[in-house]
Amino acid sequence: MSVVTSSSHPSSGSISPAAAPGPDPAGAPTPGDLAGALARLREQAPLVQCLTNAVVMPLTANGLLALGASPAMVDVPQEAGPFARVASGVLVNLGTPHAAQREAMREAVTAAEEAGTPWVLDPVAIGALPVRTALAAELVERRPAVVKGNASEVMALAGLGGGGRGTDSADDVAAALPAARELAARTGGVVVVTGPVDLVTDGVLEVRVPGGHPLLTRVTGGGCLLGAVVAAFAGSSAPLVAATAACAWYGAAAAAAGRRPGAGGPGSFAVALLDELAALDPATPPAGLA
Amino acid sequence: MSVVTSSSHPSSGSISPAAAPGPDPAGAPTPGDLAGALARLREQAPLVQCLTNAVVMPLTANGLLALGASPAMVDVPQEAGPFARVASGVLVNLGTPHAAQREAMREAVTAAEEAGTPWVLDPVAIGALPVRTALAAELVERRPAVVKGNASEVMALAGLGGGGRGTDSADDVAAALPAARELAARTGGVVVVTGPVDLVTDGVLEVRVPGGHPLLTRVTGGGCLLGAVVAAFAGSSAPLVAATAACAWYGAAAAAAGRRPGAGGPGSFAVALLDELAALDPATPPAGLA
Amino acid sequence: MSVVTSSSHPSSGSISPAAAPGPDPAGAPTPGDLAGALARLREQAPLVQCLTNAVVMPLTANGLLALGASPAMVDVPQEAGPFARVASGVLVNLGTPHAAQREAMREAVTAAEEAGTPWVLDPVAIGALPVRTALAAELVERRPAVVKGNASEVMALAGLGGGGRGTDSADDVAAALPAARELAARTGGVVVVTGPVDLVTDGVLEVRVPGGHPLLTRVTGGGCLLGAVVAAFAGSSAPLVAATAACAWYGAAAAAAGRRPGAGGPGSFAVALLDELAALDPATPPAGLA
Question: In which pathway does it act (chains A, B, C) (predicted)?
């Protein structure tokens, strides 16, 4: 797998400082940055608080455990806030936003802002669905370190409060680039647009990360888990490195899972994905990263 | 696998029109009807809204994805109604009916009725448990395109409002035939009674679908997923064809999973089931269907 | 696998009678007791009501099914109480204690007490998180047949109302022994402290159960499932036998899963664990038990 980078303003590669520790490279992340990010994650076993949808909780928690992080699905009001102060990273995924969870999300985001805990927003299926769309519009103003979505979600989120351009349900990654840049500028953070090639931008620098596997789209929560992986990396790497490392290593694990002889269908692919996340080795990055 | 059909009134094989598109055969579904139903499902990738229990959400979503449908677990009040208007089919499964989900179910069913979206009722474990039993009695009057349950559930549901015959917890499929017929007549739709041989009836025609595998009863959500598969087929086939195709193809996938050398236990069987759902091929129906 | 037993008061090996049927041995459980416990479980297929966290529901239900029990995730208010009267055992796991589930837990525990249904308390992550900690302090006074937790959880629970010793987040099993004994004396039941070697005590007798596999800690719900397995055994064995049998047989299944050639990662290990739970045979107990 290779990581292709570009920048519209290469000389001003500023990255949102947010609250994340770890090095803050002046330019696009290098393969060495990505290897270092995984090594730190494995060493620190970051506590990742997930307020996520009911469908993907098991895969999300298992994927984080396999990767080397420590998942905690603390999404009950009165607990979510205190926990976000001590977590290494927080994921807010809007897939099944029931009332109590919405309350917990607001608590967690407020606490994360105050404590400097980096948090990730995954605005699942926003656009037409009213409850999550309003919640996303509210939360995006709270400076998520990273926003991760597919092209339609990113375009919908950028449009909210930015002129009401609405959403396009059949968008590709390239079409979402202007929206991603605008959103990154507005949040002061990083935006990931997922697709066959993922796009990562802080509004200035752009990184394109190929990899992955078509079967990943046949596994429920394959995209949601990536959001949690971003939150795990954000605990010990600056947002642009964290988001790029998450896409690159996750894509490498998916590609490796797809190469397994037994993983010819979505069931066995999902099992292999967890095995491959556990088998990722910072010392031997996937071919394209070297 | 063979599909055995019979009819108490073969000359009047009427099928509930409901809102489903697709052919409306005058008699019991033929193997060709079932192959056509899968081909249409694969071509259209129907959007299936699932309001289902918390335990089986991952398997349900993964099973639908494997089959070729597009699952959407939209079960939040204020979102469930609007989504049911655009979905191809809706599943309402009463396995863990928390208050907010009950509200979302009523919304979704009302919208489905108005928009003509076919919807499937799975009255999980009704009879003794008061919350879901009352809800099932209410919802069954809203003309589900298909009701799917085991013998006890179907007998309990038919008894509700029909004379209070109550439920019998150790019923077999044959014993539930009168209840299934009555229920189909009352809803104007189709009723599926699951068991070693599934029974499908529209109140007049009866289809018996053997197949499946004993390990399916050792996988949590093995029955609940079938309800979602019925909803997926109902998006592009009339209810009797949809229900029969769902039972036949799902049973074929389960039987194939059981034949895999590695699938000797419930864990590996569940993985193989997803792989086999993805591998189903309309052009090469399972032996018994030909 | 061997089961090592010891007792601080070997001559007074009394075991909480609770409501569980089955033999009530005068001393620490023997391998024969454990074989008998599994044989009874398989014969009776106990109905195990689980009020557990959203993350582990699928694994919990699948693990119980694989073992030979009948899981029922009935956690809705107004249903949880009536069901606890007819269940063989009840699990109350505090992992994601949303408001409606808390209400259902109180209902279930009250009904279990009245009906004599043995119930198991798993005080997940109590200590710092306020909602679950308060709930655990309330429920532990309701005489759970078995409390199951890691060392930190057991120490936190023993400290509640017992002098405020608070919790220690890096405790090992040996350090939790005094807390476990005190807690057992207070509840009149049995306490399990999980770790590389599990500790089971009724306040007088102590049993140490080695076994298991390191990959079990990389599977979400690996510990939560053990709590459900305890509840399954508690339906037909006295608490000390039930808890010991659960740890021993579950550990045996995990060890066997870890020996499988293909189970080198957490994904395939979890699949193998379910297969091995189904393959457990009372007639051929694992080597160390003989």
Answer: Cofactor biosynthesis; thiamine diphosphate biosynthesis; 4-methyl-5-(2-phosphoethyl)-thiazole from 5-(2-hydroxyethyl)-4-methylthiazole: step 1/1
Residue numbers in the known binding site of A for substrate are 73, 221
At C103, give phi and psi (nearest 5°).
-65, -40
Instruction: Give the Cα-Cα-Cα angle B207, B210, B212 (nearest 5 degrees).
Output: 135
* Chain C residue numbers touching A82 (CB-CB < 8 A): 128-130
Measured between alpha carbons, how far is C269 from C262 in angstroms, rounded to an integer?
A: 8
Least-confidence region, from B102-106, B127-131, C136-140 = B127-131
Q: Which run of H or of E encompasses A228?
A: helix A222-234
Segment A164-176 mean pLDDT: 60
Query: Tokens in use for C182?
Result: 């005190």
**Tokens, residue B266:** 């419930």
Q: Which among C284, C20, C257, C272 has a CA at the least distance from the CA of C146?
A: C20
Let me know: does A75 contact A50? Beta carbons within 8 Å.
Answer: yes
- What superfamily in CATH does domain C4-289 come from? Ribokinase (3.40.1190.20)
| Apex B182 CA angle, B176 and B183, nearest 5 | 85
Q: Please give the single-letter amino acid code of residue C189.
A: G
pLDDT, residue C28, reads 86
What are the pLDDT digits (tens) for A133-158? 999 999 999 999 999 999 999 999 99
pLDDT tens digits, B160-217 = 644 333 333 346 888 999 999 999 999 999 999 999 999 999 999 999 998 899 999 9
- d(C-alpha A196, C-alpha A178), whole Å: 18
CA B246 to CA A290: how far, in whole Å?
Answer: 48
Chain C CB within 8 Å of residue A87 CB = no
Phi and psi, residue B148, nearest 5°: -125, 125
Helices (H) and strands (E) in chain B, counts: 10, 9
β pairing state of B146-150 and B190-194: parallel
Whether domain A27-289 has CATH 3.40.1190.20: yes
Contact A220 B270 (CB under 8 A): no
Number of CB atoms found within 10 A of residue B100's CB: 16
User: For C107-120, what is the mean pLDDT?
Assistant: 98
A50 φ, ψ (degrees, to nearest 5): -115, 120
What residue type is assigned to position B280 of the chain?
A: L
Which residues share a beta bridge with A199?
A193, A208
Residue B160 exposure: Cα atoms within 13 Å on the Cβ side: 22
- Find out if CATH 3.40.1190.20 is the number for domain B25-284: yes
- The residue of B59, B73, B96 whose CB has the most chain C CBs within 10 angstroms, and thus the best one to mutate to test that interface, is B96
Residue pairs between chains A and C whose CB atoms are closer than 8 Å: 79
Q: What is the ipTM of this complex?
A: 0.88
DSSP secondary structure, C227-284, as one string: HHHHHHHHTTS-HHHHHHHHHHHHHHHHHHHHHSTT--SHHHHHHHHHHHHHH--TTS
Contact (CB<8Å) C219/A62: yes
Sheet holding A119-122, edge to edge: A4-7, A205-209, A198-201, A190-194, A146-150, A119-122, A89-93, A47-51, A70-72
| pTM beyond 0.80, yes or no | yes
